[in-house]
């Protein structure tokens, strides 16, 4: 097999590899993920909209792909970079390999490249634009990368276009969809919660007209500063209903409270991230996927306080409102394929709805 595909980065680096997935050219922000499992869930996570994922683990796809584990129906990941793509997966749930899965979802990939080199480059110099292409005119490709203008419509593209219900017999929760992972809905349904998923730009009054016992704010792609409409909605909800935010939802709660966010050098992406719960002193191993974080200093003059911190870099991983039942975490308590250390947060959300006087359907 001939190496006939290239990964070109905006700093001029070129990696030569093998054709994988869809037969086209793609460009996006190149990031790395350190997970050893959950490849299907990662690729189908809409928080990766417009991004090219480098898997730092050397063998990808050995458990194969199935029809149950997708986190979205239409993945928006731009590309996948692997050292070795497993051609013959071994798992009783397997239905296809990585190459077939990427082709079916029209996602471009490249294999046979030094993913350790790419990961170290991003870690040392930060995330950067890249192109996966079959063209050998690398000078032209780099020039085009440097003139790229960032898109700000990712959430509009991945959010549901109309409300829908995932039925349960317990509390009623409205999930504001910024590009949600399906396992958020599953995690709520497993606790008998009735979930109504609504578009990202739904107003507070429209949400409250559904008589929810609580509101969830989902994960999603992009810069939280691009979602001003959601910040206004959250401000109007605080004090009127319990609110629980995950990842982008966490960042938006912080912005709604007057704090600020910033773009991280290379972000947190992986299923082995240690976080300290400041209330209990316990360490949770968490799954994370974010390129922005909340400025801890900016929280000091707000009604929000820090509840969790990342042990690797001491960044803010959780906050709560000092007076109202509003809390959030930067990581993913709904993580699939895991870890599940922080799944208790869904139970805390249910407790908050009970204390607020929520009335279950049944």
UniProtKB/TrEMBL annotation:
What Gene3D superfamilies does UniProt report for this protein, alphabetically?
A: 3.40.50.880, Carbamoyl-phosphate synthase small subunit, N-terminal domain
- Keyword Acetylation assigned to the entry: answer is no
Question: Region entry CPSase: which residue ranges?
Answer: 1-171
A single GO molecular function, which one? carbamoyl-phosphate synthase (glutamine-hydrolyzing) activity
Indicate whether Nucleotide-binding appears among the record's keywords.
Answer: yes
Q: Show the catalytic activity.
A: hydrogencarbonate + L-glutamine + 2 ATP + H2O = carbamoyl phosphate + L-glutamate + 2 ADP + phosphate + 2 H(+); L-glutamine + H2O = L-glutamate + NH4(+)
In terms of superkingdom, the source organism counts as: Bacteria
EC number(s) from the headed UniProt entry: 6.3.5.5
Pathway in which this enzyme or protein is active: Pyrimidine metabolism; UMP biosynthesis via de novo pathway; (S)-dihydroorotate from bicarbonate: step 1/3; Amino-acid biosynthesis; L-arginine biosynthesis; carbamoyl phosphate from bicarbonate: step 1/1
Q: Which InterPro entries does the record associate with it?
A: Anth_synth/Amidotransfase, CarbamoylP_synth_ssu, CarbamoylP_synth_ssu_N, CarbP_synth_ssu_N_sf, Class_I_gatase-like, CPSase_GATase1, GATASE
Keywords assigned by UniProt, alphabetized:
Amino-acid biosynthesis, Arginine biosynthesis, ATP-binding, Glutamine amidotransferase, Ligase, Nucleotide-binding, Pyrimidine biosynthesis
Q: Which residues bind L-glutamine?
A: 47, 220, 222, 248, 251, 289, 291-292
Domain Carbamoyl-phosphate synthase small subunit N-terminal, chain residue ranges per copy: 3-133
Q: One Pfam family this chain carries?
A: CPSase_sm_chain
Q: Where is the active site?
A: 247, 332, 334
On subunit structure and binding partners, the annotation says: Composed of two chains; the small (or glutamine) chain promotes the hydrolysis of glutamine to ammonia, which is used by the large (or ammonia) chain to synthesize carbamoyl phosphate. Tetramer of heterodimers (alpha,beta)4.
Which HAMAP family does the entry link to?
CPSase_S_chain
Q: Which family does it belong to?
A: Belongs to the CarA family.
This chain's function reads: Small subunit of the glutamine-dependent carbamoyl phosphate synthetase (CPSase). CPSase catalyzes the formation of carbamoyl phosphate from the ammonia moiety of glutamine, carbonate, and phosphate donated by ATP, constituting the first step of 2 biosynthetic pathways, one leading to arginine and/or urea and the other to pyrimidine nucleotides. The small subunit (glutamine amidotransferase) binds and cleaves glutamine to supply the large subunit with the substrate ammonia.
Q: Protein name, please?
A: Carbamoyl phosphate synthase small chain
């Amino acid at each position: 097999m001939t190496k006939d595909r290239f990964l070109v980065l905006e700093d001029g680096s070129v990696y030569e590899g093998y054709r994988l997935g869809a037969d086209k050219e793609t460009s996006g922000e190149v990031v790395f993920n350190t997970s050893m499992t959950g490849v299907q869930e990662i690729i189908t996570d809409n928080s990766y909209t417009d991004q090219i994922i480098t898997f730092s683990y050397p063998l990808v796809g050995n458990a194969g792909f199935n029809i149950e584990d997708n986190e979205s129906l239409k993945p928006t990941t731009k590309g996948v970079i692997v050292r070795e793509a497993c051609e013959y997966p071994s798992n009783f749930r397997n239905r296809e390999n990585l190459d077939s899965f990427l082709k079916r979802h029209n996602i471009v990939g490249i294999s046979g490249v030094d993913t350790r080199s790419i990961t170290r480059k991003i870690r040392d110099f930060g995330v950067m634009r890249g192109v996966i292409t079959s063209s050998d005119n690398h000078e032209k490709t780099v020039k085009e990368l440097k003139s790229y203008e960032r898109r700000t419509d990712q959430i509009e593209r991945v959010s549901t276009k109309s409300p829908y219900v995932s039925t349960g017999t317990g509390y009623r929760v409205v999930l504001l969809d910024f590009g949600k992972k399906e396992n958020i809905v599953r995690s709520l349904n497993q606790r008998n919660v009735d979930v109504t998923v609504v578009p990202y730009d739904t107003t507070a009054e429209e949400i409250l007209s559904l008589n929810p016992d609580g509101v969830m704010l989902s994960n999603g792609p992009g810069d939280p500063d691009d979602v001003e409409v959601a910040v206004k909605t959250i401000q109007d909800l605080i004090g009127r209903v319990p609110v629980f935010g995950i990842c982008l939802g966490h960042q938006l709660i912080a912005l709604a409270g007057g704090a600020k966010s910033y773009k991280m050098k290379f972000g947190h992406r992986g299923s082995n991230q240690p976080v300290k719960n400041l209330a209990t002193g316990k360490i949770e191993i968490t799954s994370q996927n974010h390129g922005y974080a909340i400025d801890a200093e900016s929280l000091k003059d707000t009604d929000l306080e820090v509840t969790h911190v990342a042990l690797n870099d001491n960044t803010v991983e959780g906050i709560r409102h000092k007076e109202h039942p509003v809390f959030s975490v930067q990581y993913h308590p709904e993580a699939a394929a895991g870890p599940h250390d922080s799944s208790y947060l869904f139970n805390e959300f249910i407790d908050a709805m009970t204390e607020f006087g929520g009335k279950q359907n049944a």
